[in-house]
Write a structure and sequence with these properties.
The protein is of the alpha/beta class. It has 19 helices and 14 strands. The chain has four domains: about 130 residues, Response regulator (Rossmann fold, 3-Layer(aba) Sandwich), CATH 3.40.50.2300; about 160 residues, P-loop containing nucleotide triphosphate hydrolases (Rossmann fold), CATH 3.40.50; about 70 residues, Helicase, Ruva Protein, domain 3; about 50 residues. It has a five-stranded parallel beta sheet with strand order 2-1-3-4-5, sandwiched between helices. Strands 7-8-11-6-12 form a five-stranded parallel beta sheet. A two-stranded antiparallel ribbon has the order 9-10. α5 packs across α13 and α13 crosses α15. About 0% of the residues have low confidence.
Length: about 450
């Protein structure tokens, strides 16, 4: 079945021209704002071409811009290509700022408008697929990823979820160890009971014991009432001990006794309290090396690590980077009611080139900042605080901003000459929209390109 394209234009001649040139599509028409909204609701097109000069005031763009806002309010994922007069760049850029995908200046060239529609349609379909991937959780629920590295880990986690075997999650900071722990809990027989997490590295050594085991009234100065610790709070459920490699050596002996006998004594107490919980531990440290250095008990290591799971860093999950980025983009766009909808080609290349030392946590932070700070609907590499990789880097200039600007300026000029000074073809070669190309030309003061010199 052909894709539906909505053409909003009151010029019957243009309607006829587009009808005969867009034979690969199911083309429907509207000649004013109310009929455009009616057709949008009826046919739900992925792509709309919108003439900004609509009745009752075709000489101005106000009616067309209002139609654009209403279309995107009703169907925010629709790709709208606005059509303007020959010298109306100002309103075209205003439309881009409101969320239009691209613009085209009259007179209409059938081949060019068809190219724009195909590009918009392909992008819309790709974004649909990404939304489905983001919403369709794999068997392990919260975990997002299609790479072999993460799939292997997920299969291992699935196998142990239904058991109470002690599990040790190993991996760099920011790789999502707590997400894995929560997911294992949610797929276990204990899923309806509490999941209690405690970070052993974030609590002072003199307080960690009472936080874990609780304390009796009068056990120490300020202990005005009996308080249940994290272990008891997790009764029937799962206790997640994050950064267990940072647990003081003295407390490790008490933890070992609990894991062996499944009873605890509160600080200052004498009664043994039975506890039925599953324990999942995690650390970013080389815990086997710590055993060799005698900073971590060997017997505790074997008790907590019956099944160790190594969670790969993000740099080893290149296939998942853009999927994760688009998932976070959709989430933060809704959280902050932001305009950003997609990534430029440069941003995608920059994300794939970055080493991500902070792993998924770093990616989340960069995406959150970019969604809030981005000026338009397309996130650029600069919004992410990343540098787009350049083949022209010679290693002599170490100022990253200057390197990027020089590389982009050179690439624009090269593409412009290769495209025989045609702006549409230049944008296509660079993999950007024409509005982005015009913005880059202004940014890098390449005014001679506008005059065709």
């Amino acid at each position: 079945m052909s894709d539906t394209i909505l053409v909003v234009d009151d010029d019957l001649g243009i309607q006829k021209q587009l009808k005969w040139s867009l034979t690969d599509f199911n083309v429907v028409f509207a000649d004013d704002r109310p009929s455009a909204i009616a057709q949008l609701r009826r046919f739900e097109p992925k792509v709309v071409t919108l003439d900004l000069g609509l009745p009752p005031d075709p000489a101005n763009a106000s009616e067309g811009l209002q139609a654009l806002e209403e279309i995107l309010a009703l169907a925010p994922n629709t790709k709208v290509i606005v059509v303007t007069g020959n010298n109306d760049k100002e309103n075209a850029l205003k439309a881009i700022d409101l969320g239009a995908y691209d613009f085209y200046q009259k007179p209409i060239d059938s081949d060019t408008i068809k190219l724009l529609i195909n590009r918009a349609l392909n992008l819309a379909k790709l974004e649909d697929e990404n939304r489905i991937l983001a919403k369709t959780r794999p068997a392990m629920g919260r975990i997002i990823g299609n790479s072999d590295a993460i799939q292997t880990v997920m299969r291992k986690a699935e196998k142990i979820a239904g058991t109470d075997i002690s599990t040790l999650l190993l991996g760099e900071s920011g790789t999502g160890k707590e997400v894995f722990a929560r997911t294992i809990h949610e797929h276990s027989p204990r899923k309806d009971q509490p999941f209690v997490a405690i970070n052993c590295a974030s609590i002072p050594e003199n307080l960690l014991e009472s936080e874990l085991f609780g304390y009796e009234k009068g056990a120490f100065t300020g202990a005005n009432k009996t308080t249940v610790g994290k272990i008891e709070t997790a009764q029937g459920g799962t206790l997640f001990l994050d950064e267990i490699g940072d647990m003081p050596i003295g407390l490790q002996a008490k933890m070992l006794r609990f894991l062996q006998e499944r009873v605890i004594e509160r600080v200052g107490g004498r009664n043994e309290i039975p506890v039925d919980i599953r324990v999942i531990c995690a650390t970013h440290r080389d815990i086997q090396a710590m055993v060799g250095e005698e900073t971590f008990r060997e017997d505790l290591f074997y008790r907590i690590g019956e099944i160790p799971i190594n969670i790969p860093p993000l740099r080893e999950r290149e296939q998942d980077i853009i999927l994760l980025a688009r998932t976070f983009l959709n989430q933060y766009r809704e959280d902050f009611n932001a305009k950003a909808k997609s990534f430029s080609d440069g941003a995608i290349k920059a994300m794939l080139a970055h080493r991500w030392p902070g792993n998924i946590r770093e990616l989340q932070n960069k995406l959150k900042s970019a969604v809030i700070m981005a000026e338009g609907t397309v996130i650029q590499a600069d919004d992410l605080g990343l540098i787009e990789p350049s083949e022209d880097f010679d290693g002599e200039n170490l100022n990253l901003r200057e390197v990027r600007e020089q590389a982009e300026s050179k690439a624009i000029r090269k593409a412009y000459q290769r495209a025989d000074k045609n702006m549409s073809k230049t944008a296509e070669l660079l993999g950007v929209t024409r509005p982005t190309l015009y913005s880059l030309i202004d940014k890098y003061h390449l005014e001679d390109l506008k005059t065709g010199v």
